[in-house]
Amino acid sequence: MLIIDDEEMIRHLYIDLLEVGGYDVIGAASDGVEGLEIFRSLDPKPDFAIIDYRMPRKNGLDVMREMLRIHPGTKIIFASADASIEDEAMRLGAAVFLKKPFTFTELMEALDGFD
């Protein structure tokens, strides 16, 4: 699992919750550019990524578009408080859109839906 979110507290919360849920977090980034750098460096590519929309240097839609161009097999969980971008995120390839704030249960249900 790769996490890309500019809020440090949120990144740490995702890491803690996902590890409790049995997922391995193999990278975390504070902005879109850093997230793409980490993604490019990973081999194999992660099965899942959680991407925020509003971030410095590169927004989540652009990050997702590039990640899926590099490796279409990564399932993107797009997380944003901005519900107005849900349709675009899904059209561009997000597997799931979670509107912030969401619960741990909602995140786990989204991930369990891929099994």
UniProtKB/TrEMBL annotation:
<dbReference type="InterPro" id="IPR052048">
    <property type="entry name" value="ST_Response_Regulator"/>
</dbReference>
<dbReference type="Pfam" id="PF00072">
    <property type="entry name" value="Response_reg"/>
</dbReference>
<keyword id="KW-0597">Phosphoprotein</keyword>
<feature type="modified residue" description="4-aspartylphosphate">
    <location>
        <position position="52"/>
    </location>
</feature>
<dbReference type="InterPro" id="IPR001789">
    <property type="entry name" value="Sig_transdc_resp-reg_receiver"/>
</dbReference>
<feature type="domain" description="Response regulatory">
    <location>
        <begin position="1"/>
        <end position="115"/>
    </location>
</feature>
<dbReference type="GO" id="GO:0000160">
    <property type="term" value="P:phosphorelay signal transduction system"/>
</dbReference>
<protein>
    <submittedName>
        <fullName>Response regulator</fullName>
    </submittedName>
</protein>
<dbReference type="InterPro" id="IPR011006">
    <property type="entry name" value="CheY-like_superfamily"/>
</dbReference>
